[in-house]
Design brief:
single chain, alpha/beta, Membrane-bound Lytic Murein Transglycosylase D, Chain A, 5 domains, 7-stranded mixed sheet, 4-stranded parallel sheet, 24 helices
């Protein structure tokens, strides 16, 4: 049914404007009558009287009439002839935007991009020259649409002063319009709309409302359609939360709400499918969200002590190792990183099975080698499942790679056997039986953006982002409108350039977005020197391998209290002392992150199986998060099926180079 609805939604996304009634406003000029206005729009006078009852008694100059558009008028307003007749050259000044240029020259943003192809993928650069198309007046007056009124950028405040009439315009309410819909059209929250119109309790067609002047682009007409409703974005909500909540993918949500191209903002009013089957399934999302910050200790809820049938699939590639040769095995382990990871992870699995046994949970553990190569690995997975009985399996942990994991989930989906992906950070296909235990890189970035947005008040925020980081740069600009930006040049950022935008009085939050070691080194070393007389903290949405380069000093990162998003945290030596001692006694070495991950994930799976009928039932019963030595698990439903762990740590590097959890959700 979800698949059918997905197709239905996709059809709606691209046809909603064709099937829904659309409207526009017409301002009456001297000499116009109802009849002449009706003729100009190719509609009847009755159509005007229907939506403007007072017009039966006559119309006044400057009055605003609601005009229902017919199909030809709608098509005309959408298409029109917009071929450029000539061009003018514009040299981009500092802080200029495509939006500002479109208003300055009275052309659409897409028209500018059409003749400057690089702007589809890149941002405007100060000093560059671009071509501005000149559209003849005859071409731009094919259809009249409400003219957006320029206004200061909307601030994310809690309310709007009703007395600030200089920043308002009038809106005539038409049939079926709601406060959500009107607020959405003008970039307001419902609370702001109500504060601007304190005497209006119930909307009635024809009444006049005060609204903001910032009309959303690409929405010059109001769309009314019973297949959609409106939703106001709550604090902390992001793309991941919204797509899971309403059961639609990111692209469909953006298609319904073009303003989302610039990111999710608290208070935005979104158009969503009104169909009750649009996504929430059997989950109570309101209670789900209320419970998400609850730490659940599953050891206190053990009730199902039947033997757990657990399968582990890992890429050992044993067929390529010569038998009866200790030296061969040792060399393979030393020279093969994937094999080392698999062995470390499996050692943690065995520790968890022993821990569960002490709690009364018996486990029948079976282990299979899935090989390395993604294609041969997928074939091997299918062979393993075909050659063995999986009908009584409670859960499969692994394989490691995306291709092999998807192959296992697809093969076992018919039997509804849960497949838990242990390490992959790739967004996988939404199989109903697939549990993605590691948050994706996009989720890590969104977690940091949310953290910055919620905690950067009264901070001097500076964003340093190179050309390859234009996507996250746009999100940061949206979430942090007060931020100052520095564009690195030639793989380097000078200390003087940073000093010019840093505040001597306020705390400076510098967000660094780059994988270039030269940029990372110059910024961290320069900020380290500037931190002698300024309060500076360093942040990133993605801690890539560049931070591990010898040219990037860990001491500098510690002095700058470097913050980054992470899937795991450094285990507390005191809290995990017993576990470390047992691991050292068993294997002779201190456990690394893969061994701890194997332990945490496997113990979580076994405890969930022992505290509910099965893994699916455990997520319905326990909607909070579980946490172990280094890892946290909080699974939410994925659009199309399956579950995704969205628990992310915001980590801080301290001056002594120890790690602390700054924010753990």
């Amino acid at each position: 049914m979800k698949y059918i609805f997905a197709l239905f939604l996709l059809f709606q996304v691209f046809t909603a404007e064709a099937v829904a009634q659309q409207f526009k406003y017409h301002t009456v000029t001297s000499g116009e009558t109802v009849s002449s206005i009706a003729r100009s729009y190719n509609i009847s006078t009755e159509d005007i009287f229907k939506y403007n009852p007072d017009s039966k008694n006559g119309i006044d100059v400057s009055a605003k009439l609601v005009i229902p558009l017919n199909a030809s008028e709608i098509q005309s307003s959408k298409e029109g002839n917009t071929t450029a007749t000539s061009f003018r050259t514009h040299k981009v000044a500092k802080k200029e935007t495509l939006y500002g240029l479109s208003k300055q020259y009275n052309v659409e943003i897409d028209q500018i991009k059409r003749y400057n192809k690089h702007l589809y993928a890149e941002e405007l650069q100060t000093g560059e020259e671009i071509r501005i198309p000149v559209i003849s007046e005859a071409q731009t007056t094919t259809a009249q649409v409400p003219e957006p009124v320029s206004a200061p950028q909307q601030q994310q405040s809690s309310g709007v002063d009703p007395q600030e009439t200089k920043n308002t315009r009038e809106h005539v309410v038409i049939p079926k319009e709601t406060k959500y819909g009107i607020a959405r059209k003008y970039g307001l929250t419902v609370q702001e709309l109500e504060e601007m119109n304190p005497t209006v309790d119930v909307l009635q067609p024809g009444i006049m409302l005060k609204v903001g002047t910032n009309v959303l682009e690409n929405e010059p007409v109001v769309i009314t359609d019973e297949t959609f409703e409106f939703y106001e974005v709550k604090p902390k909500e992001n793309f991941f939360r919204l797509t899971r909540k309403f059961g639609i993918d990111r692209d469909s949500l953006i298609a319904l709400n073009p303003a989302l191209k610039d990111g999710v903002k608290s208070g935005m009013v979104l158009k969503i499918p009104a169909d009750p089957e649009s996504g929430e399934g059997d989950f109570d999302f309101e209670n789900f969200e209320d419970a998400e910050d609850t730490n659940v200790n599953l050891k206190n809820s053990l009730t199902n002590f039947s033997t757990k049938e657990l399968v582990v699939m890992l890429p050992y590639n044993l067929d390529k190792i010569e038998a009866d040769s200790t030296d061969t095995y040792q060399n393979a382990i030393l020279n093969d990183r994937v094999l080392r990871i698999s062995l470390d992870f499996y050692s943690g699995v065995l520790m968890a099975v022993e821990e569960a046994k002490e709690l009364g949970i018996s486990t029948n553990l079976r282990v299979f080698d899935t090989k390395y190569d993604s294609q041969s690995g997928a074939r091997e997975v299918n062979n393993i499942i075909n050659s063995n009985n999986f009908s009584d399996v409670d859960a499969v942990i692994g394989p490691l790679l995306q291709t092999t994991t998807e192959a296992a989930a697809a093969k076992l989906s018919g039997a509804n056997v849960p497949v838990v992906s242990p390490l992959s950070n790739k967004q996988m296909r939404p199989y109903s039986n697939l549990f993605q235990s590691r948050p994706t890189d996009d989720m890590l970035a969104e977690a940091m953006v949310n953290y910055l947005q919620q905690n950067s008040d009264n901070k001097n925020v500076v964003v340093i982002a190179d050309g390859k980081s234009y996507g996250i740069k746009s999100e940061l600009s949206n979430a942090l409108p007060q931020a100052k930006f520095i564009n690195p040049g030639n793989g380097y950022v000078s200390e003087s350039a940073m000093n010019q935008v840093l505040s001597p009085d306020r705390e400076n939050w510098v967000v660094l977005e780059s994988d270039n070691v030269g940029i990372l080194s110059s910024v961290t070393s320069g900020l380290n020197r500037l931190a002698r007389d300024k309060n500076i903290k360093l942040f990133t949405t993605k801690k890539g391998s560049g931070y591990d380069n010898d040219n990037v000093s860990n001491n500098h990162l510690g002095r700058l209290n470097f913050h980054y998003p992470s899937v795991d945290k450094e285990h507390n030596q005191e809290d995990s002392k017993e576990f470390i001692e047992e691991y050292v006694a068993q294997y002779g070495i201190v456990p690394n992150q893969y061994a701890v991950r194997g332990y945490d994930l496997t113990l979580d799976v076994l405890l969930r199986l022992a505290s509910a009928r099965d893994l699916y039932d455990s997520f319905a019963r326990y909607q909070g998060y579980t946490e172990y030595y280094e890892n946290k698990f909080h699974y939410v439903p994925i659009s199309g099926g399956g579950f995704q762990n969205d628990a992310v740590y915001i980590m801080r590097v301290n001056q002594d180079l120890s790690l602390s959890v700054e924010n753990d959700f």
